[in-house]
Specification:
Layout (H helix, E strand, L loop, with lengths): L2 H17 L2 E3 L3 E4 L2 E8 L5 H18 L4 E12 L3 E11 L5
Length: 99
């Protein structure tokens, strides 16, 4: 196996390891006009901060698809050495405020 093939294989292996370091439930509806998303990120992907970022990005993307803005109703966070950061966010999508 030549050097280039080894480098490519190494990159594929590392990327597969990192994929398992973060997860999301995806956005799901819990009440009319109320949604929830739960995310997890190990320390390699930012831990609690990484999980918060992922949750906010998913929630914002969900609301922007209908031309609305994100309003966080409730959010809880936790961190454990082995499981990383976890965030459970409940939110609604509201009309954007006029400027």
């Amino acid at each position: 196996m030549d050097r280039k093939s080894k480098v490519v294989l190494s990159l594929v292996f590392v990327s597969q390891l990192l994929v398992g370091c973060a997860s999301s439930s995806g956005v799901f509806q819990v009440e009319p006009d109320t949604y929830r998303v739960a995310t997890r990120a190990t320390w390699e992907l930012g831990g609690r901060a990484g999980a918060i970022r992922m949750a906010l990005e998913e929630a914002t993307r969900h609301c922007s698809q209908s031309g609305k803005s994100l309003k966080v109703v409730n959010s809880s966070e936790s961190y454990g050495h082995f499981e990383g950061g976890r965030v459970d966010m409940t939110f609604t999508c509201v009309p954007p405020q006029s400027q």
